[in-house]
Amino acid sequence: MPSVPNVKLNNGKEMPLVGFGLWKVNNDTCADTVYNAIKVGYRLFDGACDYGNEKESGEGVARAIKDGLVKREELFIVSKLWNSFHDKEQVKPICKKQLADWGVDYFDLYVIHFPIALKYVDPKVRYPPSWQDADGKITPSKAPIQDTYAAMEELYDEGLIKAIGISNFNGALILDLERYCKHVPQALQIEHHPYLVQKDLVELCKSRGIAVTAYSSFGPQSFVELDMASAKSTELLFDNKTVKEIAEKHKKSPAQVLLRWATQREVAVIPKSNNKDRLAANLDVCAFDLEKGEIEAISGLDKGLRFNNPLNYGIPTPIFA
């Protein structure tokens, strides 16, 4: 079983540097996928109520614990607060619902999914949530991030979550947050790949002791599946000459090189795969090192090209403008 190093968070808790992302994992296979990932050696699972598969993910975890593959305290379970639950009185109830769906007493990390507050929709009306309200419109809520974050801190102080995360925040929002927060966030999750390096944002986080987790480590790959035009017109990183040459030199796959490019720079990754061989290969990405020049060459592919932008889904909310 591959050995995965941990990154120490600013509250002393340790988080695996490589985890398994649950975005786009089908409901009918999710429980088995999580179970098999635990069997292979994954200990971090990155979920969200928006993914619509938290109950199934919890079933996979419960089966693995029952079969003696792992103990709850050996797992690092991540979930996220969706945009329509930003009103401070909605944060704790939805977190408790998500905990119940997972079948656990606490989340190791609970993340504000987007710095976007939308009108509340009761989970009894529609769940998993979406960008639209009950009338099918995209309606903002007036909940300021300060109130939402304070509600997250209450969860943290009560022990319902062991770490507070933010996602899709830019530098200005982080600098603003640190003016009023009681607890500096432990982690930031961002789109991060060689086409979108975000060097300054990563360095800002490191200076504040905020761990960075990359999602969409393979760049356009995930978004081609969503039929996104900008992804379909972009060269896949797996086919990029620089990445392929480095992979051949190290006798590794392009995917492993891309993941190592991140983890060697202390950026955590959360790839997913339904293939058992690729599951193991993605986990085993800290057993080799890239040369400094190779890391710089991969970073040099930066195009500032972002795929996970609300505008790309037809959502008129340009948070990265």
Task: Sum this structure up briefly.
Helices cover 37% and strands 12% of the residues. It is α/β, with parallel strands linked by helices and 321 residues long.
Describe the fold and architecture.
The protein has a single domain, classed as TIM Barrel. Helices cover 37% and strands 12% of the residues. It has twelve helices and ten strands. The strands form two sheets. Strands 3-4-5-6-7-8-9-10 form an eight-stranded parallel beta sheet. Strands 1-2 form a two-stranded antiparallel ribbon. Helix 3 crosses helix 4 (145-158) and helix 9 crosses helix 10. The active site is at 51 (proton donor). Keywords: Carbohydrate metabolism, NAD, Oxidoreductase, Xylose metabolism. Belongs to the aldo/keto reductase family.
> What is the correct CATH architecture?
Alpha-Beta Barrel
CATH topology: TIM Barrel
Radius of gyration, rounded? Answer: 19 Å
**Strand arrangement across the biggest beta sheet:** 3-4-5-6-7-8-9-10
Total count of strands: 10
Q: What tags apply to this protein structure?
A:
321 residues; alpha/beta; TIM Barrel; 8-stranded parallel beta sheet; two-stranded antiparallel ribbon; 12 helices; 10 strands; 37% helix; 12% strand; globular; NADP_OxRdtase_dom; carbohydrate metabolism
